[in-house]
Design brief:
The complex is a heterodimer.
Chain A: E1 4-6, E2 10-13, E3 19-21, E4 23-25, E5 31-38, E6 42-49, E7 56-57, E8 64-70, E9 73-78, E10 87-94, E11 104-105, E12 109-113
Chain B: E1 3-5, E2 9-13, E3 18-25, E4 29-37, E5 44-49, E6 53-57, E7 60-65, E8 70-75, E9 84-92, E10 97-99, E11 103-108
Parallel strand pairs in B: 2-11
Antiparallel strand pairs in B: 1-3, 3-8, 4-5, 4-9, 6-7, 7-8, 9-10, 9-11
The chains are: A mainly beta, B mainly beta.
Chain lengths: 114, 109
């Protein structure tokens, strides 16, 4: 089975801090995604990547950046955390560059910004 | 822009059949997927439609009409464990995917 591992299940940070959320997948998938999930809003795409060092903006990239230095790892960076970035963050991966492949999700990181 | 609409809540009883609809307005559409998410859990893939018609996987079926920009998830013989949130998601030919806001299904005894 595909395993998508997010480094932290719960995280508490302070306003203005630089925050790193890490995600690793073990199935050599090409695509990786970062979403945030908020009540009533579903999953909103922040960034995705279809290859090493490649990234594409999703619907809500403002205040975030990403890094994909290795195929298996996709990092989400909050440059200067703000309280409105308190949310559940979900990482996902899918096998190929086609946009229809099933996505495999990690267990999520519940991030609180104080 | 790209938007998906699905009902926010649905309630049904055990053993019943329930249909969760999804409409989308989009260009570059590649296919419609459905995901299930239990409280506190990660979304898990249920089904995918690229072509018009019905796809059946056990008690779950999914339907797509590209001309109507519409699809649905059909859950039969409902069980208590089916209580969860269900998301439709549209894949695009530029590799990304967009999710709906989710439908919370409550199955009652």
């Amino acid at each position: 089975d595909v395993k998508v591992t997010q480094s932290s299940r719960y995280l508490v940070k302070r306003t203005g801090e630089k925050v790193f959320l890490e995600c690793v997948q073990d199935m050599d998938h090409e695509n990786m995604f970062w979403y945030r999930q908020d009540p009533g809003l579903g999953l909103r795409l922040i960034y995705f990547s279809y290859d090493v060092k490649m990234k594409e903006k999703g619907d809500i990239p403002e205040g975030y950046s990403v890094s994909r230095e290795k195929k298996e790892r996709f990092s989400l960076i909050l440059e200067s955390a703000s309280t409105n970035q308190t949310s559940m963050y979900l990482c996902a991966s899918s096998p190929t560059r086609q946009g229809n492949q099933p996505q495999h999700f990690g267990d999520g990181t519940r991030l609180s910004i104080l | 822009g790209q938007s998906l609409e699905q009902p926010s809540e649905v309630t049904a009883v055990e053993g019943a059949i329930v249909q969760i609809n999804c409409t989308y307005q989009t260009s570059g559409f590649y296919g419609l997927s459905w995901y299930q998410q239990h409280d506190g859990g990660a979304p898990t893939f249920l089904s995918y439609n690229a072509l018009d018609g019905l796809e059946e996987t056990g008690r779950f079926s999914s339907f797509l009409s590209r001309s109507d920009s519409y699809g649905y998830l059909l859950l039969q013989e409902l069980q208590m464990k089916d209580s969860a949130s269900y998301f439709c998601a549209v894949g695009y030919n530029n590799n990304d995917m967009r999710f709906g806001a989710g439908t919370r299904l409550t199955v009652k005894p």
